Amino acid sequence: MKRRRDILFYSVIVIFIATAAVALLGITGVLTINETYLDTLFKALIIELVAAVIGLFVSTNWFGKNRLEAFEEVEGAWWQMIRKPGENAMGFLNISFTKEEQQIKLEGRAFTEQGASWARFWSISAAFNADTDELYYFWQGDEFQSDEDFSGVGFIRFTQSTDSTGKFGSATGWFTRGDLFRAEVTERKKVIYRRAADIEAEAMEDGSAALQQQLVAHVRTHWPSRCSQTSVDELKDELQPDSGEQGKELPA
C-alpha cells in the first residue's frame, strides 16, 4: 500500500512539473504552441496550483502539534492499573508506531494481583489525537489458561510529565471487554497509567518470569512510585535463595 502511494505521489509530481514547464515555455514564447492548446495548458496549470495549495493547507497542522512529534511523547512502556473495587489487576503495555505500515500499535500483558501473567492483548486499530493528547483503540486478547478470546474498545488521555524529558508520565482511561465483533460488551473498566522506568521496562522484557512476577506485585503495592535500580536488584536478591522459585516458569 505504501509503495502504491509513493508511485501515485511521484506520478502527480512529474505530471505537474511537465505541465508547468510546457505552459511556461509556451507563454514566454520559447516553444511555439497553438493558442487553443496553450490556453488549455494554462488553465490546467492554474488548477494544479490551486489543488496543491489546498492540499498543503489541509495537511498542515498550522496551530497544533506535529502529529509524529506529539506521538513520540507517548511512545514506550507503560504500567496499567485497573481501578475496580476489590480488584487492582495490573497490565504492562508497549505503545509504538511502525513507519513502514504507518500504524500505531499497542501490545501488552495482563497480570493478577499477585503478579502472575494470565493474558495478552494487542490493538487491531488505533488513532492518536495530537491536539487533545488522546488515544483511541480497538483491541483483542486471549487468556493463557483458557481458549476464551475477548475484545473491546479503549481510550487513554495522557497528562504531561513534570520531568525534564518532556514526555508524558501518566494517563487515565477506560476499556470495554466483551465481543467486539458481535457488538457485545460485558464490562467497562477504568484504568490509570504511569510510564515505566527504563529499568522496569528492561526487566519486563528480558528478566525471568519469576522476576517479572515479583516486579508486577511490587509496582502494584508501591503505585505510583517508580522502581530504582536498587529496588530491582533487591527483588533479584529475594529470588536467589529459593532455587525452586527461580525454576518456575510462567507464561510469557
From TrEMBL:
Residue stretches of biased makeup (Basic and acidic residues): 233-252
Keyword terms, alphabetized: Membrane, Transmembrane, Transmembrane helix
Lineage: Bacteria, Pseudomonadati, Balneolota, Balneolia, Balneolales
Species this protein is from: Fodinibius sediminis
Residues covered by region (Disordered): 229-252
Name of the molecule in the record: Uncharacterized protein
Membrane spanning stretches: 7-33, 45-63
